[in-house]
Amino acid sequence: MENGQSSVSRDAASTGEVSAVPAADITAICAAFDNDSHRMLDILRTVQDRFRCIAPSTMDAIAAQTGLTRIEVEGVASFYSFLSLTPRGRVTIRLCDDIVDRFTGLADVTAAFEDVLGIGIGETSADGAFSLEYTPCIGMCDQAPAAMINDVLLVGLTPQSARSAAEALMAGKTPEHLISDRFDELSPQERANRMVENNIRHAGEVLLGPVPADAGLAKAVEMAPAQIITAIEDSGLRGCGGAGFTTGRKWRFAAAETAEKHYVICNADEGEPGTFKDRVLLTERPHLLIEGMTIAARAVGAREGILYLRGEYVYLRPLLEEVLEQRRRRGLLGESILGIEGFDFDIRLQLGAGAYICGEEGALISSCEGLPGEPKTRPPFPVNRGYLGFPTVVNNVETFCHAARILDRGAGWFHAMGTEGSHGTKLFSICGDCLNPGIYELPYGHSVWDILEMASGQEAAAVQIGGPSGTMIARDSFDRKLTFDDLATGGAIIIFNGDRNILEIVEYYMSFFVHESCGYCTPCRVGNVFLQKAIAKFRKGLANPDDIDYLKDLSATIIETSRCGLGMTSPNPILSTLQNFPLVYSAVSKPSKDGIRDTFDIQSAIDSARKIAKRRSYLYDRDFTK
Amino acid sequence: MSGLPKARIATASLAGCFGCHMAILDVDERLIELMKLVNVDRSPLTDKKRFTQRCDIGIIEGGCCNEENVHVLHDFRRNCDVLIALGQCAIMGGLPAMRNAIMHSDAPLRECLDEAYITGRYIRNTTHNVPNDPALPLLLDEVYPCSQIVEIDYQIPGCAPEGDVIFDTLVKLLAGRFHGFERDKIRFD
Questions:
Q1: B135: in domain
Q2: Predicted ipTM > 0.90
Q3: Mean pLDDT for back-to-back runs of 10 residues, chain B (189 residues)
Q4: For testing the chain B interface, which of A593, A606, A611, A625 should be mutated: the one with the most B CBs within 10 Å?
Q5: Dist. CA A473–CA A580, nearest whole Å
């Protein structure tokens, strides 16, 4: 694939200005992806990495090569936040702007970078050397504040370490050499481990304990596809990405479709703020994941698979490509897997480009197809018509890992863990105000108190279960259980202590959804902006009791009229806090005086006109000449 | 009903086209019936420029595009028990609010005035100036619907609302029997 691009990007780095991209280079890049318009995201990522932007002339050339129109190319290029139409710095520094980072000193870290680099957030230095920007959660909440510097991750930043990193970069050090002076000699696994701690605090029986290599796959090749599906169904395994659909059913639906091809896609686009469990699995159990995908391929009859890795986890790409290559060499991927005639399956790695929405099944498929990451209308469901119109199984990283273990140890073993309806174990990524943030593999059914005790976060005043699209609960609900029937979660648990401002958290989460809405459905694109503005009113103390009804009404409209999960859950930060923290809202809202709205400020409203007219307001300004 | 004192109503046209006031006249001969129920205080219909006493109902046409609109609207809110936003401009900002679409500019108001008086392709303005008579109220940074400036009790939708709807609504409100609109009265296609 597009190996070796990092060395090329350093060649391009010698020029400050963006020169016109030679047509031959574009032709070569497109040709490397067979001029296939479905690989548009890869093409654009490569162009972005090499030339720091996707210039208009480049888009024409790409369109000509791939047989698309210019506007289709621009549609993709302008959709993803890691692609840019204007030049970015040769070193692009993306500071993770999650609420957890904000609470752990992001402002000071930002100030250190701004001070040393001499540019502000959103700016690129005049010589084209550096860009500094904010990006939503990059999956490092257990070691916040964190930053992506090109493809390198820096975690646990302090103002001092940020300053010294920025100074080293200014002195000409490459981002890779910030990690280690011998970076080039390190293996992909060592590189990943040097950059990011995995913080496994509690290893459970299924995933993070001892896992024998490819034992599940060995069992699977002995079984007929239908038996594999039955085993997964019997285990009670449900999707671990958040929605919790029964995995066996999904596989059965896909297998039942007669089609020329079937696909298996792994959703490793964990973008829900506060979630980082897949990161740990991808680092610690990559073989288990590929094993699970291979088993799924056998179950549904797929010959091709895609591992969709979120753009923020680009640092794991060398590791995962090495794993895929190893498995191909060992006959665990490719043709005639384990010597079984006709059992062919291979996986390509598809890198995302910084769009939360691509974690949604349909949007993820769109993105794999080289389109803007917009959800698809359902039905048809992906299991019937997914990637390129073929039946497609899309599962979370953790789900595939579980599947491989279930095949090894048996459905009964897995079914016996957890609670009725929520079987097996789950990875919880715990972060925020606790002493031991990190990954906990636990059977379903633990209470929130249990979790807080394990993570030493007993002073919590509020716990966000399942990230922003989940639920925020207060102390009186901490005895609730983590199961699909009570508190369902894709794994994110964010702890907030009593010093945190609930409305600040809610406002942050709404700004996150405003940023990440794909814009297709108006209620989601516009409604979330209105919700965010309404929350800002509460924070300023300008809200009146009617605004609470407004929040509820508008939220209901957005949920009712959005076509994908983003819009159906984006009002949750507001709705769950209205329900569980009603006093927070009533404390800052008051009826307006004489029916006059406090939110309207006449002085700021007439200020621009006053400057244009160069005179005072005869209604609202005093006459100082008298 | 004859035993009750007549209700007092007031009306004003802010950033509108006066079409909603024309629509009030569309009540036609029922105006006589209406006048049996109400006295009209401050209103362009009576040409009274100030409130003579507190009113029961204030009817507002148009949103707020300048400081004078805000001033009048505040005056109405303070002097009327019930405030009605009449027509699309009062409810949502309407046509004047199209200038709110100039949002990706550093100086949207300046851009709007320049286009309206100087740079617009079909403008014939021999002075090449933006009008700036001291008698002109200052414009607001954008056009606001009335509900963003004061609390509004009722909205009568339409551009302009039909005379029938205005008449029915007022009569029902005065009798305390208004419970929302018939669906077909607020369908506009």
A1: no
A2: yes
A3: 79 96 94 94 95 97 97 97 96 95 91 93 90 94 96 94 94 92 80
A4: A606
A5: 6
